[in-house]
Structures are given as structure tokens and as C-alpha cells.
Amino acid sequence: MNKFQHTFIFALYVSCFNFCFATSQVDPLDSPSWESMHSKILNNEPVIFDDRVQISMPDFAEDPMNVPVSVQVNNLENIEEIVIFADLNPIQKVLSFQPFHIKPYLSFRIKVEQSTPVRAAVRTSDGSWHVGGSWLEAAGGGCTAPSQGRAAGNWHETLMNVSSRSWIKNELGRVRFRIMHPMDTGLADGIPEFYLEYFDVVDAGGSVLAKITTYQPISENPVFTLDINKEILKPINLLGVDNNGNRLNAQIEN
């Protein structure tokens, strides 16, 4: 056997070892739905449970229609996508966040139907998923209740309106914005699903800083917080659409 064959076999062995290690780890949250989530959300791709992926939220959801969640990824390179999902929700996938030119930090609010693990899965360029998460205790009912704004007859007048503010935190520009939208799940009787599908965060030069794809479990009138480098060309714009074709085109105030 020549040197090239030795090198090839060794590389193949290491690759197989890493794959088996990544796919055979025991779920630290001991969720009854983990195997299903691994298949449905992460396509059975290699998984590493990783402390560098941090998800912060209350231990108990006082309001199951508005649970604050923050995700931060530390010291992990070549991030392509961050997916948030709740194992035991009737609609598990919450959002996808692609931080092209901003920090891998995002906060938002979600709806939960019952107690569930909430996870952040970070896909890196090598095709593996780095997963962090924790259990959230909840009384339930957040996904099957109608949006509160529908009680007001004029909700359509404020649809896609955006309010925002920005400040400096840890030498970064932190921005928070609210998008007016019912975010109906389609699980409440007589109310079809109606939700924001995605939006791009775009700088003044037209560069897409991040893409956020949202699903029904995001809370009504969603609020998002991002960290953006101070050097980014201002103003920042939000460009997106909901599942009924309504367009989002708004500017974030500096």
C-alpha cells in the first residue's frame, strides 16, 4: 500500500468517526420528539450538541403567546444558517436566520402550545449542525388562540407598519424593530393562517446583511433585535412579504 492510499484511508476513517460521533450523541434535553426533529428539521445531517450555541428564555412562559427568546452564537466560524424550533409545538419550525454580514445574535418572541424544548441549530459550511437549547415550561394554548389584534376592526390599516429604535451596546449598533402583523397560525377556529414569510435586512448600499424567514409560531406584531456593526451604511431597510403577498418595505430609524 502506497503513501497516498494510507493517507486516503486515514482521512476516510477520521471522516467516518466524526460523522458517527456527530450523529450518535444523546439528546441532552431527553425530548421524545428529538429523532423526529433531527429528521424533519435537520434532514438527518450530522449534529453536535454545542455550548457555544446559547439560547436564553424564561423557565416558565407566563404568556404562551409572547415568550421572549434570545439566541447568541460564540466563537463558531463559517455560519450559514441558524434555525429555531420547538419540539412539541404543533408547528415546530419558528424561524431561520442567515447572518450574512452581521453578528449571529437575534432576539424575538414566540408562541407555544405546551411545555417544550426550544432549540437553536447552527449550520456551518462543513454541513454539520451545532445545537443548543433548553426546556420551556408552559401552561399552553399559545398556538391555537386567535391573534388579539383581530378584535380591533382596523388592524389592516397598520399592517406591515414598522417602529424601531437603535442604541450602542458593547461597541455594536443594536437595533430593535416591531412589524405590525397578526401572525395567525391557522389553528384557531375559522381563522386561516396569515403570517410574515420572510424579510431581508438591507444596508443603504443594497447589500443584504441578513435574511430572516419566519413561520406561524412567531408572536403577533413580532419584535426583533439585531446587532449590526457601526460601520454599516445607514439607513437600514427591511424588505419582505407575507403569505398573502402583502409587501414589507420600511426603514429602521437610526
Structure overview:
- This protein is mainly β and 254 residues long.
- The chain is 11% helix and 41% strand.
- Strands 1, 3, 5, 6, 8, 9, 12, 13, 15 and 16 form a ten-stranded mixed β-sheet that branches. Strands 2-4-7-14-11-10 form a six-stranded antiparallel β-sheet, with no helix packed on it.
| Major β-sheet profile | 10 strands, mixed
Unreliable residue stretches:
4-24
Class by SSE composition? mainly beta
CATH topology: Immunoglobulin-like
Q: What is the percent of helical residues? A: 10-25%
CATH architecture: Sandwich
N- to C-terminal separation?
A: 65 Å
Give the overall silhouette.
Answer: globular
* Count of strand segments: 16
Tell me the β content.
35-45%
Radius of gyration, rounded?
20 Å
Task: Please name the defining characteristics of this protein.
single chain; 16 strands; 254 residues; mainly beta; 10-stranded mixed sheet; 6-stranded antiparallel sheet; Immunoglobulin-like; 2 helices
Summarize the entry for a quick read.
The protein is mostly beta strands and 254 residues long.
Write the layout of secondary structure elements.
Blueprint: H1 3-24, H2 34-40, E1 47-49, E2 53-56, E3 60-61, E4 67-73, E5 79-86, E6 93-98, E7 105-110, E8 116-124, E9 129-138, E10 162-169, E11 172-179, E12 196-202, E13 208-214, E14 223-228, E15 236-242, E16 247-252
Parallel strand pairs: 1-9, 3-9
Antiparallel strand pairs: 2-4, 4-7, 5-6, 5-8, 6-13, 7-14, 8-9, 10-11, 11-14, 12-13, 12-15, 15-16
